Amino acid sequence: MIRLVALDLDGTFYAGRSLGVPASAWEAVEKGRRHGLRFAVCTGRPQGGYGLEYAKRLEPNGAHVFNDGASVCDATGRSLQADPLPHLSELVGLARAHALPFDLMGAEGGRYYEEGLMPPELLSHIETTGVEARSARLEEIEETLVRLWFVVGDLGLWESVKPELVALPSIDLAEYISPREVIAGVIRKGVSKATGLRWLAQYYGLSLSEIAMIGDSHNDLEAIREAGLGIAMGNAVEAIRAAARHITGHVREDGFAEAVEYILAYNRQNQL
């Protein structure tokens, strides 16, 4: 029996700026609740902003995973679990030395950038999440920091600095590369959405077999594999599709609602 549905946001629940969250997705959540399901955001987005608004509506009295597992909070944004990012001084030192735009994510929902390192591409990256950022140097921040994002428009510069970043122990670097920029997230090594699922299981007193994970991108892979029921969106990358037990429709075509229907059918079948 599935009792908790963990869901990625972008490409899974949220269908982009023009469509937002489809009405069918919210209707599916309400139907799932009537049948005893609980819901938890499990996203790479920073804590707060639009992601926290969705979390509050999905499960106002529950726990939610942000920053790819590096932070867990309740629907008010109160921190429940955090994995501090190691080597912050070295990471920020490299960014300053090479003029790499970056921002830092906190376990209480804070988001920080440094004056002079705020190009348009970083500003756009911040605005898409709805998490307000403020200028502060690392040495001034008291909040526990769990993630650093680089947003670099110069691909050559990024490739020249990347070996220094990769050489730092105890961190994981995830890159999203387009022809115009590199967006790279840094978190503590070993932290992922899968560790977030394990935390949720303990919090709710569940086994992983009682949790479903719905996702579409590479950062969902470990969680899809560990969940009792892994579901890939129709728009998911091939690795997710291959690992999932079921593939549903595209996020723009009521795919999330189909995923919830599949979970309810799965539960009915397992009640027999």
Care to give the gist of this entry?
GO terms for molecular function: magnesium ion binding; phosphatase activity. With 272 residues, the protein is an alpha/beta fold.
How is this structure best described in words?
Helix content is 35%, strand content 23%. The protein is an alpha/beta fold and 272 residues long. The protein folds into 2 domains: 4-82 and 191-270, 3-Layer(aba) Sandwich (Rossmann fold), CATH 3.40.50; 88-188, Hypothetical Protein, Haloacid Dehalogenase-like Hydrolase, Chain: A, domain 2, CATH 3.30.1240. Strands 8-7-6-9-11-10 form a 6-stranded mixed sheet. The protein has a 5-stranded parallel sheet with strand order 2-1-12-13-14, with helices on both faces. The longest helix has 17 residues, at 255-271.
Task: Identify the notable features of this structure and list them briefly.
alpha/beta, Rossmann fold, 2 domains, 14 strands, 35% helix, phosphatase activity, HAD-SF_hydro_IIB, HAD-like_sf, hydrolase, HAD_sf
SS element count, helices: 9
Mean pLDDT score = 94
Number of strands: 14
CATH class identity of the largest domain:
Alpha Beta
Which strands sit side by side, in order, in the main sheet?
8-7-6-9-11-10
Strand content: 15-25%
CATH fold descriptor of the largest domain: Rossmann fold
Q: Element order, helices and strands?
A: EHEHEEEHEEHEEHEEHEHEHEH
Q: In whole angstroms, how far apart are the ends?
A: 11 Å
* Helix residue percentage: 25-40%
CATH architecture descriptor name of the largest domain: 3-Layer(aba) Sandwich
Total discrete domains: 2
Q: Which stretches are low in confidence, meaning pLDDT under 50 for 5 or more residues running?
A: none
Oligomeric state of the chains in view: single chain
Main β-sheet description: 6 strands, mixed
Rg over CA atoms, rounded to whole Å, is 18 Å
For the record, what is the CATH homologous superfamily label of the largest domain?
A: HAD superfamily/HAD-like
Question: Could you say which structural class the secondary elements and strand pairing correspond to?
Answer: alpha/beta
Shape: globular
